[in-house]
Amino acid sequence: MDTIVSLKQAIEQIVKEKGIDRQVVIEAMEQAVLSAANKKYRNTRNLEAHYNNDTGEVELFEYVVVVEEVQDSYTEISLDEAREMDPECEVGDELGEKIDSGDFGRIAAQTAKQVIIQKVREAERETVFNEYKDRQWEIVTGQVRRFERGDLLIDLGRAEAILSGKEQMPREVYRPGDRIRAIITDIAMTTKGPQIILSRTHPQMLAKLFEAEVPEIGEGLVEIVNVVRDPGSRAKIAVASHDRDIDPVGACVGMRGSRVQNVVSELRGEKIDIIPWSADIARFVCNALSPAQVVKVFMDEEQRTLEVIVPDDQLSLAIGKRGQNVSLAARLTGCRIDIKGEGKVEEGDLEEFASFDGTHVEEEPEEMAVDEETDQQQPEPEIAA
């Protein structure tokens, strides 16, 4: 009895502290006792289990139907026998008798413990899911817990998140216990609990880092229009200002480059080109090709295709190593960009015409192998419709 009383007290305490529905625990205990009893009696009897709040135990009852002639001794009882129990009973009545629950009380105690643990776990999972479900695209900091087939399991404190291999930065190496920052890209509830997906390669990771570093972005004075990345290598971010007195590029760069340098450090040296956005597509493309200079632009507005003419000595710079610069520019602007050198235009030789539509180039032409990144001022390009 002491065990049962202590069990009752424990249930009441858990219900109060964890906020679990008391009836859920009681019903689970009743079902456990009933299942164990039916198994013992091989489902030959009509049994019911009920929790007695006064005694703190699950009581087991056997029910039989009053009949004139007994055909099933497990579920039926004769009228004469029934009237020994209840003188007023009639044929067709159902009589219930409490039977010795024996070891079933211990089963109830074990079940209560299991139910409590399960419900606490479910409540904690629900709490974690509710805490993170509205935090998509938020940067979080966690600790590397372990590796699973190339994926990192990150401890966020109250929750565990997954940073898959494809969402990790190239050449980054982590060990259990290392601190790591990543952006939440998805939160879903699964049978195993909330699943939080992280990324360090998503463009929004870069955008959120700038948002944290640049107060003007948080205040709405500077807007990040678009971001494209080759994670771990190079990125371009287009920014616009909603205040004439604020230079969006300068705001993102910061005093002596302090703001952009903090972002670069977090991304392990990833080069970042900050591009002023323009509603003029041709001008925007010229900005996006920075640091290369542009001489002239031929534009097909309907097809969103631009032919960009650059000085011959700027051709490899405009295209970039393995076509990276023009590829990022095309993805940033949403345009197809065709580039050729000034000398080739004069000669009318289109064999050296370089065409890019935002996809990577597998092989790098020898004459384009040098990536000369400079901070030269671009002259105003000539734009032709």
Automatic annotation (TrEMBL):
Transmembrane segments: none annotated. It is found in: Cytoplasm. Residues 376-385 have a biased composition (Low complexity). SMART domains: KH, S1. Its main location: cytoplasm. InterPro entries: KH_dom, KH_dom-like_a/b, KH_NusA_2nd, KH_sf_prok-type, NA-bd_OB-fold, NusA_N_sf, S1_domain, TF_NusA. GO terms for cellular component: cytosol. GO terms for molecular function: DNA-binding transcription factor activity; RNA binding. Keywords: Cytoplasm, RNA-binding, Transcription, Transcription antitermination, Transcription regulation, Transcription termination. Participates in both transcription termination and antitermination. Belongs to the NusA family. Monomer. Binds directly to the core enzyme of the DNA-dependent RNA polymerase and to nascent RNA. This is Transcription termination/antitermination protein NusA. It comes from Trichlorobacter lovleyi (strain ATCC BAA-1151 / DSM 17278 / SZ) (Geobacter lovleyi). The gene is nusA.
